[in-house]
Amino acid sequence: MATFLYRLGRGSFRLRWLVLAVWVLVLGGVLTAAATMQQETNPEFVLPGTESQEAFDLLEARFPDANADGGTAQIVFESENGEPLTADANKAVIDDLAAHMLDSPQIAAVTSPFAVDEAGNPIGMISADGQNIAVMQVTYAEPAMELDEGTIHYLEDAIADTEDAGVRVEVGGDVLQPMPETGTTELIGIGVALVVLVVTFGALLAAGLPIITAVLGVMLTTAGILAATSFMNVSESTGTLASMIGLAVGIDYALFILSRYRNELAADGRVDDKRARAEAMGRSVGTAGSAVFFAGLTVVIALLGLSVVNIPFLTEMAVAAAVTVVIAVLIAVTLLPAFAGFAGKRIFTKRQRRRIAEGLHDAKPNGGKRWAGFITRHPILVALVGIIGLGTLAYPALDLELGLPDAGSSGEDTTQRQAYDLVSEGFGEGFNGQLIIVGDLEDGVDAMTAAQNITEELGGIDGIAVVGQAFPNADMDTVMVTLIPETGPSDHATNELVHEIRGALADDTDANWSVTGATALNIDISDNLNDALLPYMLIVVGLAALILLLVFRSILVPIMATLGFMLSVFAALGALVAVFQWGWGAELFNVDQPGPIMSMMPILMIGLVFGLAMDYQIFLVTRVREAYVHGADPKQAIVEGYGHSSRVVVAAALIMISVFAAFIFSGEALIASMGFALAAAVIFDAFVVRMAIIPAIMALIGRGSWWIPKWLDRILPNVDVEGDKLQEHLTKDAPREDERELVGASK
């Protein structure tokens, strides 16, 4: 591996114009595809194989007029003039709006608060207590994400026309969902990363190269996602997560290789020699590039493992992020060397080149050595402080509550949240999380009898506030009934109610009953995520441990790496609960409404944090192993390894933290909580686990850290991350290079 990457890095450096041309063609092709193939998409929660999804599909097939997948707007009214909404002036405002909405483009149905059925029975929603809150249900013929901009503007204008009419109007539903803007957050992350790189390298040109390569990688992925919209639905979060991961790993991977390249050049002292620069780049890609390759492979495995959850939108996000990581690795081992070739000796400033020529440039900073020396002298103290500290931070995770966001978790100043609160005030929280019971009737069962039976059976279940009228479809083979829980959609009691209803109806002989609706679908998503967590961890941790076994040829190092990762994850989850669930520092971290943590957060965190944690494990410990196999004793190897790599790992961690932390202010709940959790996890993992706990335990274990059974050592392939085979290759080729130089000189 090291020898192949050496040739790739040196070749990319020498053939930089060709490499640049290939990447320009690739970028141009993908951008062209994005421009010509981009389509509007309709991302939606689809959960194959679950009861709620099967019931939803049955509704679409058997009740086509109900527009089960159509966008909805819940227009909520509150009297502001002290009179009930049934008063003539207020009623006129609502009736005018209802008539106006009937003329809306893409409209399917409008149900006024004052609507009645054929028998004269009221079917609209108007509060019994004072008649001061009412709801107009608006259903569109197309899903919310497929509605035209003109349709959305029509609704907004209609609502605006009711201002100063004595009636307060708020809008819930899925039609007016705000779209997050992430461009500013990405710029913040890039700006902080540039500052860190300038401080690390002391040269603006060198600092700019990782930024340029990372941005190019994100551009490629973003353009690819836009092109993919021509044949698949893509959610807004997919591109945002890919950008977040792409910027972080793209900058870090380039940083590690470029830092090794500068150190190799500084140690060699021949900065002005083109051949020396090419050789230094070859050695850098062969060694640091090997670590980048396996680090990227670990992240990709962790991301693709999310497919075991069998939630399409989650798999889509994971695949996009994994592709971003692959592109970041390819750019780091090919395009970065080419850019370094163009930079030439300007990769150092004039002052740095002068110090190198005078032998004064220190390519091996002493800060890392001093820190590692302190750890090896006090390993028990360092390990205990680190483990107890992270354990304390992890304590709030014991109170972790999972759920999916609804309008009740929106910011208090949003119309969605205010509509939610008005409905809760006028009708009860359960009206915000209605459930739909669907029955596929058995042959020979009378539909009206089945409807009467299901109504009576549901009426005997505690926790149900209202059981609506059950009615059959036109073919009399399916029955549907709507019910209102007593509790809100994200309440734990509602979760238990759904499971109780399913259990009660499981043995019914009239029909195959199922429960659906947005609330039931969210509950099934949470259940799927919880059920998949253990298999996912076993798959990802198992494969990653195998990679670490190949890289380090050790039994205990992969075990330490995995246990340290779990400590980081639990500490990050604890911090997440404290801020996003308990509300500690909510204003500081832009948390509008503390509440349950999103159901997909734990499994997403495990996937992403595991991959990123293994990055630092590989980058740091490969240098330790490199020193160990070259003859250093275990403690000295730790000092040497951390002396070489700790400064650049600290810089990489700071960059990754800044990129993730910037997304806390994205305005989208999933991305904001993900940015916070990942930033916290990197802080804990990079600075506490990898920089303190792991070297402390390795110092305590000594040579045992590198123990591996001889039989296993013989059968494992040697991936040569530390570059022993590469060194042999260079030693063999050295005489030939010298002969060529002599021949050239004689000519």
From TrEMBL:
Pfam families: MMPL (PF03176). It is a multi-pass membrane protein. It is found in: Cell membrane. Residues 212-342 form the SSD domain. Gene3D superfamilies: Multidrug efflux transporter AcrB transmembrane domain. It comes from the Bacteria. Belongs to the resistance-nodulation-cell division (RND) (TC 2.A.6) family. MmpL subfamily. This is MMPL family transporter. It comes from Glycomyces tritici. The lineage of its organism: Bacteria, Bacillati, Actinomycetota, Actinomycetes, Glycomycetales.
